[in-house]
Each structure stands twice: as structure tokens, then as C-alpha cells.
């Protein structure tokens, strides 16, 4: 067991220098975020939620993890993140001990440490995929992994208190293990599938689907054997869903019920005060007249609020859903797809827009922002072209199609159905690693004179993106 863990988490000799560079990047980024919010988030309080939510502004990322590590509760959406709160219970206990020892809330430091570890091993697993599975040279594997960590929302995901970099680490671990199974022509066992499903789906439920895709591509026809299908797919998925329903009933519904009752009580009290104020101002005791005037007055207020709410960014930028059910209300059929692909999916995810820098779409950022310089579109076009060329050259490889099934699932979810399309770049850590993995097939297939030019091109792109994105992130965190 210890040997397996060492094989997975031990750092190889040829990984050290590139890994050290990424570790420095992660420490700097997390240090800047901690410094920005230290004065606000470290004092001890009776309640932390309002402080975190009202003061944390980095793109549209949520500071829920800070709150859960500060005062544990099932604050995440339990249907989308069924086990995430429970994964944070040990960090919460650690924070309680540190609060007692230091007299400050250490959530920013504990979460920062988790982000650094997750980002670091995301880099390691991506590099190993390129080297161990695709078969590129060590230098090229490092270069491609460094390219991925030059992408804007990889840098940000690794430094904000959200779950995305944790998902990225686990998805890349699943791909690395799956790729090695494909190369060795060995199946993904039931217990391996269950373990990977629990940790990935526990953090973000939709990522559990990708583990089943791994099982399908690694095992082939054996995936449909009744024993594997039942114990590795159907039963774990059903149990995860039942657990999410139980979690909602036990932890979420009582709090929602209490909040709704308190809100109803306050509304009733305010309504009574308004009614009495109207009666005093009119000096009338005619109940029929008072009721009629009060109804007109309340309808005017409701209409004014309705109009004001519909002018707010959180409403205007939400997009029109397919339906208004429990999950379909998150869909979006009105946000333009082409502009979203160019400016957000392959745009903001990779290189930040200078205008409305790191603003939240649900607060002030327009859904679509255009780059000011043609150079940014040239960079985007080069990356997309190399991504497509890599797919073309590696289209016979089963592992590449496994990676593309991960990518395709998110493409269908976000661009097809429109889940989170208005801020789709925030979810980049779930799929953006497909770009350097596909590009690795370019490095594996090209040789002779073409390979040095490819290395120079990717190296220059990596350098440009590191400078571009880092400078803008530092500008936002330090000077805004």
C-alpha cells in the first residue's frame, strides 16, 4: 500500500525543476490572495458567512470553503457537491485547534495549503500523462504542463477558495491511472472505479460521469458485464444520489425551513407596520377603504421591485433556461454560443480580458467582453489550431478519445445545455487539461526539423501567457 502511494505521490527526479517552478507560482498566488483578505477574514467572529460573501470578489468564484472550514455546515449545494462538506470536516477540526492556539481564524491558510497541494499534483499528474501515457520526452511533457499552468483560470482555480482545482487534480489522477491501464492492457477494477467515483463525484457530481467514461474506455466490452455494471456503476451512482437526498433532508431543509419561516414572520410584521402607517396617514378607520388603498400601494411596490430586480446583472446575465425545474433552471438557451466559445470558453479561460478585469458576471461584468488587441486572438487561434492538430494526429488512440470524452461531456453540459454558460470560464479546470494532452500527440508524432519549431512556438506561447495572466492577476490582487 505504501509503495503504491509513493508511486503516485512521490516526485521523480526528472519532475523536480518544473515542479519547483509551479510550486513557487502557487505559493505566490495563494500568498497574494491571503494577503488581500487577511485583515478581513482572520478575526474571530460569531458568524463568518456574511463577512466572506460580502467581501470576497475574484471573478465569480465562491468563498464557501472558507465558511465551511470556519464553522462547519453543509453550505454547498448538496446535489452538485454531495460529499464536499464532509471532505472539509478534518480541515475544519484543524482550524478549530489553530483558532484556540493562535487566536485568529486560520481558514485562509488551511484552504491555501489545500489549493497549493491540489495545484501541485495537478501539474505532476498532467506531466505524467504526457510522458507515461502519450510517450513524449520529459522536456516536452514539462513544457506542455507549464503551458497548462499559464492558462488564466488554472492559475485562478489554484488560488481561490473553490473546489475546481481539487476536481482537476482528481480528474487528472483518474486519467493518468486510466491511461496506464490502457497502455498495459489491464482493466479498471470495480474497487478502483468506486474509489475514483466517490472522490470525484463527491466533490462535483457531474465529474463522476467521467469516471464511468474511464471505465468504458479502459475496460471496453467488459464494462457491460453485469457484475461490473451493477457494482461499479449503478449501485455507487444510486447510493451517491440517495446520500445527497438524505444530506438535504438532514442538514439543508431544516435551515431552509427556519429561514423561510423567519422571512415570512418579518414580512408579516413589515406588512402590519405599513398597514398601520397608512391608516395613521389617512386618518381613516374605514377598513374597506384602507384595504383597497393598501392593496394598490403594495402592488406598486411589488412591481417596482420586479422591474428593479430584472435590471440587476444577476438577473439580466443569467440567460433564459430551457425549463424551471430543479436542475433545468440552470440551463441557458439565450447566451450566444459563438461569442461564448471565442471570448470565454477558449478566451477568458486561457487569457484574461483587461476590461472588467476579474469582475463577477452576476455583479458587474458583461457576459461577453472582446479583447482590445489582435494579438490575443492570434494566441487563441494558435492554441486552438494545435489542439485540433493534436486530435487529428492522435485520433486512433483510445486514450485520446477518453480525454476527449471528458472534454465533450463538459462541452455538451456548458455549451450545449448552457449550464453556467454566462461564466463558463470558471469551470475551465474541469476540461482545459484536454488542450495540452491533445497537443502532446503533436510532440509524439512530429520529429526531425519540425519538432524544434513546435517547441519554440509552445515555449513562446507559455512565456507570453505567464506574463500576461500573472501581471493582470497581480494588478487585480495588489492594486485594485
Descriptive terms for the model:
single chain; 480 residues; mainly alpha; 0% strand; globular
What's the structural blueprint in terms of helices and strands?
Blueprint (H helix, E strand, L loop, with lengths): L1 H8 L6 H26 L7 H7 L8 H7 L13 H4 L1 H14 L4 H28 L3 H11 L3 H6 L6 H21 L5 H14 L4 H12 L6 H57 L4 H24 L2 H4 L20 H12 L25 H20 L4 H19 L17 H12 L4 H30 L1
Helix pairs in contact: 2-7, 2-20, 4-7, 7-8, 7-10, 7-19, 8-19, 8-20, 10-11, 10-12, 10-18, 11-12, 11-13, 12-18, 17-19
Structural overview:
This protein has 480 residues and is mostly helical. The protein is 70% helix and 0% strand. The chain contains 20 helices and no strands. It has helices spanning 2-9, 16-41, 49-55, 64-70, 84-87, 89-102, 107-134, 138-148, 152-157, 164-184, 190-203, 208-219, 226-282, 287-310, 313-316, 337-348, 374-393, 398-416, 434-445, 450-479. α4 crosses α7 and α10 (164-184) runs antiparallel to α18. The longest helix has 57 residues, at 226-282. It is globular and about 95 Å long. The two termini are 48 Å apart.
Give a short summary of the structure.
Helices cover 70% and strands 0% of the residues.
Q: Radius of gyration, Cα only, in angstroms?
A: 25 Å
What order do the SSEs take from the amino end to the carboxyl end, as H and E? Answer: HHHHHHHHHHHHHHHHHHHH
Structural class: mainly alpha
What is the residue-averaged pLDDT? Answer: 91
In the predicted model, the low-confidence regions spanning at least 5 consecutive residues are: none
Amino acid at each position: 500500500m505504501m509503495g503504491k502511494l509513493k508511486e503516485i505521490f512521490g516526485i521523480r527526479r526528472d519532475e523536480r525543476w518544473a515542479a519547483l517552478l509551479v510550486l513557487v507560482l502557487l505559493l505566490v498566488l495563494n500568498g497574494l490572495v491571503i494577503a488581500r483578505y487577511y485583515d478581513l477574514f482572520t478575526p474571530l467572529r460569531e458568524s463568518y458567512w456574511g463577512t466572506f460573501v460580502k467581501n470576497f470578489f475574484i471573478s465569480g468564484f465562491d468563498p464557501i470553503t472558507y465558511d465551511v472550514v470556519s464553522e462547519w455546515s453543509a453550505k454547498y449545494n448538496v446535489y452538485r457537491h454531495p460529499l464536499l462538506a464532509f471532505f472539509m470536516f478534518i480541515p475544519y477540526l484543524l482550524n478549530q485547534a489553530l483558532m484556540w492556539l493562535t487566536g485568529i481564524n486560520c481558514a485562509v491558510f488551511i484552504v491555501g495549503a489545500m489549493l497549493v497541494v491540489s495545484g501541485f499534483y495537478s501539474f505532476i499528474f498532467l506531466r505524467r500523462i504526457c510522458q507515461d501515457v502519450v510517450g513524449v520526452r520529459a522536456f516536452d511533457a514539462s513544457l506542455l504542463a507549464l503551458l497548462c499552468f499559464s492558462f488564466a483560470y488554472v492559475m485562478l482555480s489554484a488560488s481561490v477558495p473553490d473546489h475546481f482545482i481539487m476536481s482537476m487534480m482528481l480528474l487528472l489522477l483518474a486519467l493518468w491511472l486510466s491511461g496506464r491501464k490502457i497502455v498495459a492492457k489491464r482493466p479498471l477494477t470495480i474497487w478502483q472505479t468506486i474509489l475514483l467515483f466517490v472522490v470525484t463525484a463527491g466533490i462535483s457530481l457531474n465529474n463522476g460521469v467521467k469516471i464511468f467514461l474511464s471505465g468504458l474506455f479502459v475496460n471496453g466490452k467488459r464494462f457491460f458485464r453485469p457484475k461490473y455494471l451493477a457494482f461499479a456503476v449503478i449501485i455507487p451512482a444510486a447510493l451517491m444520489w440517495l446520500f445527497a437526498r438524505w444530506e438535504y433532508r438532514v442538514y439543508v431543509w431544516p435551515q431552509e425551513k427556519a429561514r423561510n419561516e423567519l422571512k415570512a414572520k418579518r414580512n408579516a410584521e413589515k406588512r402590519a407596520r405599513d398597514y398601520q402607517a397608512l391608516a395613521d396617514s389617512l386618518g381613516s378607520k374605514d377598513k374597506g377603504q384602507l384595504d383597497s388603498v393598501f392593496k394598490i400601494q403594495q402592488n406598486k411596490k411589488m412591481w417596482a421591485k420586479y422591474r428593479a430586480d430584472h435590471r440587476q446583472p444577476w438577473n439580466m446575465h443569467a440567460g433564459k433556461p430551457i425549463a424551471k425545474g430543479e436542475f433545468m433552471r440552470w440551463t441557458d438557451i439565450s447566451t450566444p454560443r459563438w461569442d461564448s466559445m471565442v471570448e470565454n470558453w477558449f478566451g477568458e479561460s486561457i487569457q484574461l480580458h483587461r476590461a472588467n478585469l476579474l469582475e463577477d458576471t452576476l455583479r458587474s461584468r458583461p457576459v461577453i467582453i472582446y479583447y482590445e488587441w489582435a494579438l490575443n486572438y492570434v494566441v487563441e487561434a494558435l492554441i486552438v489550431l494545435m489542439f485540433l492538430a493534436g486530435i487529428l494526429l492522435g485520433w486512433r488512440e483510445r486514450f485520446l478519445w477518453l480525454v476527449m470524452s471528458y472534454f465533450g461531456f463538459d462541452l455538451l453540459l456548458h455549451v450545449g445545455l448552457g449550464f453556467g454558460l454566462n461564466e463558463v470560464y470558471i469551470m475551465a479546470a474541469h476540461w482545459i487539461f484536454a488542450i495540452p494532452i491533445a497537443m502532446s500527440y503533436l510532440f509524439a508524432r512530429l520529429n526531425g526539423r519540425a519538432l524544434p519549431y513546435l517547441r519554440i512556438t509552445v515555449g513562446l506561447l507559455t512565456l507570453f501567457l505567464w506574463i500576461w495572466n500573472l501581471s493582470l492577476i497581480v494588478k487585480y490582487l495588489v492594486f485594485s
